[in-house]
Amino acid sequence: MFAGEKYWGGGGNNKNAEVTCxxxxxxxxxxxLDIIHVRHSLRDPKSKSRKNNKGFIFNPIPAPLVNKxxxxxxxxxxxxxxxLKELIDTKNCNLLVIIDLTTDxxxxxxxxxxxxxxxxxxxx
Length: 124
Description:
By secondary structure, this protein is an alpha/beta fold. Helix content is 31%, strand content 13%.
């Protein structure tokens, strides 16, 4: 979730996305479900989401708790260049629920790959 709409160029169409996601995350934590947070860091040094820029920092509203699972990806799928599949398989998980900011980019690409790997996948 992008904090600071002006920093990212404005135009967000769901002003409550972060709050909604944080409520879902809180509920999952309360019932003991595993959560894997994925952060995006483009390889381009000028990218706003690059490690040394403020866009790399998680939005504080739906941010992961300390010492919880976080992976960093640099392309549109969380399965590429990261250990997401290994993490999921280690947990013996076959159902994924994906929530994120840009559904038509990273979420759908990750969801399609999850389906290709045989996971039952839902996008919120």
